């Protein structure tokens, strides 16, 4: 209902972008952003390897997600659990994801352990904490520094004691 106003800029008539009314279709796009969960993504695995020594399957994951910023690890974990017939989804570990410049494709690593016992044995503690299998131990910086100092002192004492026995 409001007609677009015209602004004079150095003698030229230029329509003001702020005052132009939007059509009903354009208003629909402005008011309702697209839902991210509706868009599909494609998962590809490559360099798939069965590692019997560490009781796991390991691979590189390529996720194609055009028009979507990222795919959550929980969603990927759920899809990989169904793809590879994993009994417990907690045995799936995903990490190291990097999104390519421009978006639309992410690459990361995946590990599927045979059972939780093997996962707890071989996975680093920080990854177990991320996946909710262990609790994070909160230590202050001062405690860590004191512990490190004590360890250095013991090492130095043992070294000196051995040198004196010669």
The CATH C-level name of the domain at 42-130 is: Alpha Beta
> What fold name stands as the CATH topology of the domain at 42-130?
Alpha-Beta Plaits
Tell how many strands the DSSP assignment holds.
6
Q: What proportion of the residues is helical, as a percent range?
A: 25-40%
Report mean pLDDT, rounded to a whole number.
Answer: 79
- What is the 3D shape? extended
User: What is the level-2 CATH architecture name of the domain at 42-130?
Assistant: 2-Layer Sandwich
Structural class: alpha+beta
- What percentage of amino acids are in beta strands? 25-35%
- Characterize the largest beta sheet: strand count, sense, and whether it forms a barrel: 4 strands, antiparallel
In whole angstroms, the N-to-C terminal distance is 100 Å
Spatially, the strands of the biggest sheet line up as: 3-4-6-5
| SSE order | EEHEEHEEHHH
List unreliable stretches of 5+ residues.
2-12, 25-36
Number of helices: 5
Protein name: 40S ribosomal protein S24
Region (Disordered): 134-166
Pfam families: Ribosomal_S24e
Organism: Volvox reticuliferus
């Amino acid at each position: 209902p409001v007609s677009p106003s015209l602004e004079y800029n150095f003698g030229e008539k230029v329509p003001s972008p702020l005052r132009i009314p939007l059509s009903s279709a354009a208003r629909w796009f402005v008011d309702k952003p697209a839902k991210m969960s509706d868009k599909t993504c494609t998962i590809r695995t490559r360099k798939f390897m069965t590692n019997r020594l560490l009781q796991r399957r390991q691979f590189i994951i390529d996720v194609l997600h055009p028009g979507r910023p990222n795919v959550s690890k929980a969603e990927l974990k759920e899809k990989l659990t169904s793809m590879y017939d994993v009994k417990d989804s907690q045995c799936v570990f995903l990490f190291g994801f990097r999104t390519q410049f421009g978006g639309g494709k992410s690459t990361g690593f995946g590990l599927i352990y045979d059972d939780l016992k093997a996962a707890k044995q071989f996975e680093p503690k920080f990854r177990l904490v991320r996946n909710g299998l262990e609790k994070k131990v909160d230590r202050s910086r001062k405690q860590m520094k004191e512990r490190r100092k004590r360890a250095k002192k013991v090492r130095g004492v043992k070294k000196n004691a051995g040198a004196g026995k010669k």
